[in-house]
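Just wondering, can you check both lines?
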Amino acid sequence: MRRIFSVTPIHVDQEELDRRRRRYDELAPAGITVELVDAGPSAPTQLASADDLRASEKAVAAAFATAEGYDFRMPDCVLDPGVPAGDRGMLQVVVERLVADGHRVAAVTRNQVIADELTRKVREYGCGDAFLGVAVLDLELSAVADGARWNAAMRSALEDLSARGATAVINGCSAVDVEHTEGGPLVVDPVADALRLLAGQA
């Protein structure tokens, strides 16, 4: 059994933490267990500014610094905040595999701040040449827990990204249940794919 320690990128209430934990339980393949904890009150309550990103990075890194006995440490965030040296977050694991498989990759995010950081990370991972950009959905934080609303916004964005040449689109929020549509680019749930790929390393 491989154990993953995960930390939310923002401070969430117990109801939202439980929802995210159930999501991991449902998506984790055989041989993988995920322990998800809240980043705590020092973390921002949403990612809406550069200061929020820095605070998130610091809070997640602090939580990881005390986690021992786990096979992987992976933030519950597609932006890979606070990933310890030598480890890989879900975005890195997923985008590297998509590029290796020959995909032209794009993404959707809730806001422009997240879009800019995701783009920066993809380039940092050496995958910029295969990355076609991000469609910003302009959604409030409440949409993260509202799958129907998120997926409705994403469907229209997929048409534009497909027209740009994208063959795979990363859903830029790890806490959203995405719908896999027929036709068009592959819609990538970063949590599901990262867990599957990490399970393959067992």
